[in-house]
């Protein structure tokens, strides 16, 4: 049986930097490395397609939509405070303050290309 993934494509300037970021800091596993054009990493059932400037995915993107967007992947955590401390100790800076709402708490960070990642702890 083939593993089933939900895939998201992120356009990145530097595929190797993106691989390092996701595997070192966010617990992703490298699945395919075709750097500098492309790589994909997985975490659970999420497959993140990292497309560099030479990849077909990046080349198919209209020029006016090439910048990192306001969409983000959403990673659910059991202990957000511990994750914030761990990432802070690793020199990762956050793009938002910690926000608390009725569903839980969240904070945003960005990968080396500026793509957003939401770390979320349910209430």
From TrEMBL:
<keyword id="KW-0223">Dioxygenase</keyword>
<dbReference type="GO" id="GO:0016829">
    <property type="term" value="F:lyase activity"/>
</dbReference>
<keyword id="KW-0560">Oxidoreductase</keyword>
<dbReference type="InterPro" id="IPR037523">
    <property type="entry name" value="VOC_core"/>
</dbReference>
<dbReference type="GO" id="GO:0051213">
    <property type="term" value="F:dioxygenase activity"/>
</dbReference>
<dbReference type="InterPro" id="IPR029068">
    <property type="entry name" value="Glyas_Bleomycin-R_OHBP_Dase"/>
</dbReference>
<keyword id="KW-0456">Lyase</keyword>
<dbReference type="InterPro" id="IPR004360">
    <property type="entry name" value="Glyas_Fos-R_dOase_dom"/>
</dbReference>
<protein>
    <submittedName>
        <fullName>Catechol 2,3-dioxygenase-like lactoylglutathione lyase family enzyme</fullName>
    </submittedName>
</protein>
<feature type="domain" description="VOC">
    <location>
        <begin position="4"/>
        <end position="122"/>
    </location>
</feature>
<dbReference type="Pfam" id="PF00903">
    <property type="entry name" value="Glyoxalase"/>
</dbReference>
């Amino acid at each position: 049986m083939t593993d089933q993934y939900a895939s998201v494509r992120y356009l990145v300037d530097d595929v190797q930097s993106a691989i390092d970021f996701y595997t070192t800091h966010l617990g992703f596993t490298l699945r395919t490395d075709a750097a500098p054009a492309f790589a994909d990493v997985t975490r659970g059932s999420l497959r993140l397609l990292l497309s560099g400037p030479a990849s077909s995915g990046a080349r198919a993107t209209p020029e006016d939509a090439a910048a990192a967007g306001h969409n983000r992947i959403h990673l659910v955590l059991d202990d957000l405070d511990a994750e914030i401390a761990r990432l802070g100790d690793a020199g990762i800076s956050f793009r938002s303050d910690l926000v608390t709402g009725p569903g839980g708490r969240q904070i945003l960070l960005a990968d080396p290309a500026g793509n957003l990642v939401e770390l979320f702890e349910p209430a």
